[in-house]
Amino acid sequence: MSRILLWCSAGLLLAALGVLVLPSVVPLLSADETKTESALVSGKHYRMQDHFFRHGVEESGSINLVSAIYLGYRAFDTLGETIVLVLSVAGVLLFTGAKQ
Amino acid sequence: MKESKIVDLVSRKLVPYILLFGLYLISYGHLSPGGGFQGGTVLSSAILLLCLSRGVEATSRLFTSRAVNALEIAAFTLFLAMAAAGMAVGVSFLGNFLPLGRIGEVPSAGFILFLNMVIGLEVGTGITLICFSLLRET
Amino acid sequence: MAGAIILLLVLVAVAGLILTDNLIKKVVSLSILNSALVILFVWAGSLSGSEAPILLPGVLDIVDPLPQAVMLTAIVIGICLTAVALAIVLRIHKCYGTVSRRRLEELTKNDDG
How many domains is chain C partitioned into structurally? Predict the structure, then answer.
C-alpha cells in the first residue's frame, strides 16, 4: 500500500516540476543552439542585457558585469543570502550538539 | 582516522598557497571571474584539507571554533554596517557611495571590493564551521 | 545537446530520490537536482551571445549576465540546504543507529504522533 503511495507522490513531484520548468524549456529545445539577437544589433527592444552592456561599467565601476549585478544593482539579494548562510550555520550547530 | 605521513606533509605545504589563491579570487572579483562567494569557498577548502589529513581536534586547536565564529559574526555585522552607512551618507540603502577609481585597477569600483572581502570572509568561516561540526567524531 | 544532459540529470536525481533506501543518497540526489536546475538557467541565458560578460577592451558580444548573478545565490542556498539536511541525518543516526529508510519505518512505527 505504501509503495502505491510512493509512486503516486513520485508522479506528483514530476508533474509539478514539469509544470514549472517545461514552458520555459520547450522553446529553448527547438532553438537548438542558434543565437538570438546579440547585445550589439538588437534595435527593436531595449532589454536588460543591453542596459548592462552599455551602462554597467560607468554606473557601478567594475568590468565584471556579474559582480556589478549582484553587488551593485541587486545587493539586497546578496544581503538575504548572507542571512540564510548565518542561519544555516546556526542550524547545523544546533543539530550536532554544540557545547556553547 | 589513520594518519599518513605523506598526506600530512603535502597538505601542510599546500595550505598557504590555497589560501593565497582564495585571497586572489576575492580581491580580483571585479576584474576577472571570481568574487566573494567563490574565493570564500576556496578559503574554507584549505582548512578542510587540514581537517581531513590531521583530524578535527588538531585543526580546531589551530583555528579555534570560538575565533572562527567571532570572525563570521564580525563580517556579517560589517556588511550590515556598510549597507546602513550608505543610507546615512544619503544615497540609499546599499547604495554605492565610495569613489570609483580608475576602471580596471584593483582599488576601484566603489564599495564592491570591500563587500567582496566581507562576503569572502563570511562564506569561508561559515563553511569551515559547518565542516567542523559535521566531521567531529563524538 | 545541453538540454538532453539537463533532462538526464533531472531524471537521475528524481529517480535517486525515490528509489534508494539510504538517507544520505537521498540528500545527494537533492544536491544533484539543484545543480541541474542551475545549469538549466545558465545555459538558457547563454544562447544570446558568445563571450563571457567581462568587459575587457575589445569584447563586443556578451552572454546575458543576469541569470549567472541570480544562480550564484541559488548555489549558496543549495549548499546551506544540503548542510542542514546532512546534520539532520547525522542526528537520526545518533538516535536510531541506522540510516536505512525501511529500518527507520519499522523503528518508528510505535512512536506517538
Answer: 1
